Amino acid sequence: MTTLDDHSDAGGETNAPVWAVFGDLMAGLLGAFVLILVCVVAMQFDLTAKLKAEAQQHQAELQRRQALEQALAGPLAAGRVTLADGRIGISGNVLFKLNSAQLQAEGQQLLKSLAGPLSVYLAERNEVLMVSGFTDDLQVHGNNRQFADNWELSAQRALTVTRSLIEAGVSPSSVFAAAFGAEQPVASNADDQGRARNRRVEIAPTPRRVAGKDVKGG
């Protein structure tokens, strides 16, 4: 004969595994939620750190450009040089005659006026100056054929400007020359005006390399 107590015991034994499974399920869900929360928090911290680093880098770059503008206030106001994205641009017509790497008097005076402000700027930062020579796309011509091609012409012009800056007081360890020939025009070479813009020299501060790695200025 089955009693009420027997039914109660049987029901209890039947329900017990269900609650155990439910408890395990809830524990698993809670663990997954905690894991997701930890991942989200970690990603948030990582994103915050990246945004902070980018903001600091942007601020440092802004300060660097402002310092360069202040150092070159005189030549910039006189329209003798341009400053774009931290690069100082000088028209090749100011510095050199066509197909020549010999400085003109106006170019010599301009470089002398730049040497002082640039030396002050470099003294406050761990940077060096890259002097880059550029030409138009016309082949080098002339009676003496001094230069084999535009690469050689742009290299010699960059070296001439580099040496002039050193003679005017810029430290030899703080400046170097680079040649780009006609490969990086800033205007079309289809007309005289565009070619004149492409014949240029640029002076750009760049981080100094120390012990095989870049050292940021500022």
UniProtKB/TrEMBL annotation:
Domain OmpA-like, chain residue ranges per copy: 83-209
Chain segments carrying region Disordered: 186-218
Gene3D superfamilies: OmpA-like domain (3.30.1330.60)
InterPro entries: Bact_OuterMem_StrucFunc, OmpA-like, OmpA-like_sf
Entry keyword set: Membrane, Transmembrane, Transmembrane helix
Compositional bias (Basic and acidic residues): 192-202
Transmembrane residue ranges: 20-43
One matching Pfam family: OmpA
Protein name: OmpA family protein
Source organism per UniProt: Variovorax dokdonensis
